[in-house]
Recover the amino acids of this structure.
């Protein structure tokens, strides 16, 4: 596979220095804690794919591998996990010619900005973050400082490129609010307009939550309810057929319970409108058969993920290509990051 050799560093720098003011900077990432599932795809990656095609945006999409260190991965797993997310990104269609695709650990400017922003983040506000409270509940034996300051590292990821838009799922909205707070605090303290305010973004309107099929909440890597882009057809069918349902509606036009809403929400994402309408009507007139609904959903997911899975299988074999993409992404990401960091150090009076 060919890696493009074009040089967008100059263009990126000029974006940061304001010559292309109308262009917006887009930054987003996914933690390297497993392969990508439908929640990652529809919450985040689908937006990445559209944004990289839009000339109004300069996109940085990265693998948040430092973020995975909170759970102490083994050294031999660290690299593999980073590569897994890269491979899935490329399999989904992220194009290193159109977006800067890089690994967080290749950009040392990020941890430096993280250190600086840590001085502006307060223990109380960090302790109130929902994802922190959740982690404290789930892994009380390992409540490390990295978990507490997770939103600060995330803010550094975003602010280092002076992002305007951050395509993420709904679970990241609170972190984005903190990134705006830290950026504004910095601007205010040093009386400088270094950081714009980054906002969450989704093409369909507000950020979304893709549900799991276990009737509870969102699809998540650690919730054991993920349908992965790499899952084979049989695995997908098995997972979908296990979806939680009930005995079915007995009154026409009754409110759907959450577990059924979840199945419909996934069908809306992967299926066509006519199919969704047909099953909605069957629900409303109480003739729906959940077995058929699940079969339909499984086949639609298989159809949707098959081409992505096929590309992933090709890219897995091409380790040279993976390496080249990461190297090229690191160069471009560092060019943008070091421009921001120089400005940060200058306004702070460092050197
Ligand atoms: P992570 O790795 O948990 O998830 C990556 C992206 O996928 C979205 N997502 C979902 N969206 C909708 N429904 C779901 N069920 C679902 N599950 C996951 C997430 O919202 C996210 O957009 N902290 C981030 C990674 C990160 C980051 C950043 C993101 C680190 N630095 C800077 C943006 C900008 C995280 O843990 O995402």
């Amino acid at each position: 596979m060919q890696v493009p050799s074009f040089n967008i560093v100059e263009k990126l720098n000029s974006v940061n220095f304001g010559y292309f003011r109308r262009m917006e900077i887009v930054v987003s990432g996914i933690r390297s804690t497993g392969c990508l599932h439908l929640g990652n795809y529809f919450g985040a990656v689908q937006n990445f794919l559209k944004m990289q095609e839009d000339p109004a945006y300069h996109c940085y999409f990265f693998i948040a591998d430092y973020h995975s260190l909170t759970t102490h991965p083994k050294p031999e797993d660290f690299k593999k996990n980073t590569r897994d997310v890269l491979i899935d990104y490329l399999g989904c269609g992220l194009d290193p010619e159109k977006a800067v695709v890089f690994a967080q650990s290749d950009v040392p400017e990020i941890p430096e900005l993280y250190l600086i922003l840590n001085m502006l983040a307060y223990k109380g506000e960090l302790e109130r973050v929902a994802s922190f409270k959740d982690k404290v509940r789930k892994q009380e034996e390992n409540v490390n400082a990295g978990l507490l300051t997770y939103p600060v590292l995330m803010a550094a990821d975003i602010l280092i490129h002076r992002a305007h838009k951050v395509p993420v799922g709904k679970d990241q909205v609170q972190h984005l609010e903190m990134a705006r707070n830290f950026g504004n605090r910095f601007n205010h303290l040093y009386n400088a307009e270094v950081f714009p305010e980054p906002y969450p973004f989704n093409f369909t309107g507000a950020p979304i939550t893709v549900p799991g099929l276990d009737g509870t909440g969102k699809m998540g890597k650690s919730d054991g309810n993920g349908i992965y882009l790499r899952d084979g057809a049989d695995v997908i069918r098995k997972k979908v057929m296990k979806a939680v349902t009930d005995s079915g509606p007995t009154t026409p036009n009754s409110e759907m319970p959450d577990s059924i809403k979840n199945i419909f929400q996934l069908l809306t994402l992967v299926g066509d409108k006519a199919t969704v309408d047909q099953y909605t009507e069957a629900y409303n007139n109480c003739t729906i058969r959940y077995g058929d609904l699940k079969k339909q959903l499984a086949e639609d997911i298989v159809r949707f993920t098959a081409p992505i899975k096929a590309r992933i299988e090709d890219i897995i074999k091409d380790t040279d290509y993976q390496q080249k993409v990461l190297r090229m992404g690191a160069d471009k990401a560092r060019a943008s990051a070091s421009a921001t960091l120089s400005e940060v150090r200058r306004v702070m009076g460092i050197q």
The CA atoms of residues 250 and 286 lie 6 Å apart.
